[in-house]
Design a protein that fits this description.
The chain is an alpha+beta fold and 384 residues long. Helices cover 30% and strands 15% of the residues.
């Protein structure tokens, strides 16, 4: 199989002729016989004048007059070398300038941020999983939330994304429950937390069917309370006790990530059952539903949930379902005092007092203390 040249023969021939001519013209040439004769005559004249002047030396700064010979003056290779280096330097500057212009066109903010006084910063590295209660509140974080970085200025920027932040501990047998039964209880508790607080449909205000389905139907009072709160929410029947929900006509999520941090533990429960304790903080980035809205705020929900998985052979329970034994919750920037079944974040301020706030200001990112089970859900957040 033969391949044809992409260029016609006459073009190749012209290219070869031009190349050969350029080589001949640029090659160093031996000086002609006439040039050598002129050089020799001028040398003899210089010697004659030197003898007539009594052998005086040339005055400082003077030099014999000689024509440029093939061994005098800069060699053609050296001249071409300097020119080539100059071209290469100028070419490199041109490439850098062109690249800078291209980056500026594609992302002007990045270029500006690299200039002195710019704000280009890498986000902090993710935190390792929480395995014990922290000793204090996390430090301050600089910046303010934007549509591209909704967690800027918040410790949550280092939290894990969504369900990845709910780390299930390694299972072990406790009481009368096998390792496999404990593992199942831990997995079911995680599934409930995800369905109640992270499922996109639930967060957008939908009915949390998956979360309700995990609750043991034998626990009729809890299931009934959930259904009543979802259908007819009021002060005494609030679905926010169980689920994180926002009014889709009012706000929308910025992106699809909810930041999550907390820990899960287990121990032997009543009559040899396994009791699971979950303590997690969920951080939701939100903007107004109105078209073109660019303002970003965060709502922070901390939940403490206790569940049990009982032995069906000893208790009247449904295998594989959870028994919910305790609920605690605290909100920051939630529109406290509104009982329509939705969280209502406020926009325009970083630190705010809820309408029904009681007690001292609280840092919603401080996980070093237990939630006050006797206190209300409303409070003054020192930051969001």
């Amino acid at each position: 199989m033969t391949s044809e040249s992409p260029l016609p023969d006459d073009i190749w021939e012209r290219f070869a002729q031009d190349t050969e001519r350029s080589i001949r013209e640029s090659a160093p040439k031996e000086p002609s016989a006439r040039a050598r004769m002129v050089t020799e005559r001028l040398r003899q004249e210089d010697e004659k004048r030197q003898k007539e002047s009594g052998g005086r030396k040339w005055r400082k700064g003077a030099a014999p007059r000689q024509p440029d010979g093939w061994r005098t003056g800069p060699a053609w290779q050296e001249t071409n070398g300097r020119a080539a280096r100059k071209k290469r330097v100028l070419g490199g500057i041109g490439v850098v300038a062109a690249a800078a212009v291209t980056v500026f066109v594609v992302n002007p903010g990045m270029v500006v941020s690299w200039l002195p006084g710019g704000s280009h910063k890498k986000t902090a590295a993710p935190l390792p999983a929480e395995t014990a209660r922290p000793t204090g509140a996390p430090g301050a974080a600089s910046g303010a939330p934007t549509l591209s970085r909704p967690f800027a200025g918040s410790p949550a920027e280092q939290y894990a994304d969504g369900a990845a932040g709910i780390v299930v501990p390694e299972a072990a047998s406790v009481g009368t429950m096998s390792k496999e039964q404990v593992a199942s209880a831990l997995a079911a508790t995680k599934d409930f937390l995800v369905a109640a607080n992270l499922d996109p449909a639930t967060v957008r205000g939908g009915r949390p069917e998956a979360a309700i389905a995990l609750v043991d139907p034998q626990q009729g009072d809890v299931v009934s309370e959930m259904n009543t709160a979802l259908s007819k929410p009021d002060r005494n029947h609030d679905p926010l006790h169980f689920f994180s929900r926002f009014d889709p006509n009012e706000v929308k999520m910025v992106g699809d990530v909810v930041k999550t941090r907390g820990r899960m533990t287990f121990k032997e429960g009543r009559d040899g059952s396994v009791a699971v304790h979950a303590d997690y903080t969920f951080v939701y980035p939100l903007t107004k539903e109105a078209e073109g809205s660019r303002e970003v705020e965060r709502t922070i929900v901390r939940r403490v949930v206790d569940t049990e998985v009982l032995d069906p052979g000893r208790f009247q329970v449904t295998a594989g379902k959870l028994t919910l034994t305790s609920f605690q919750v605290n909100f920051a920037n939630s529109g406290c005092g509104v009982y329509d079944g939705f969280l209502h974040p406020e926009f325009g301020t970083r630190s705010r007092r809820e309408p029904d706030a009681t007690g001292s200001p609280v840092d919603p990112y401080d996980r070093s203390h237990e939630l006050d089970s006797s206190g209300g859900q409303c409070g003054t957040a020192t930051r969001t």
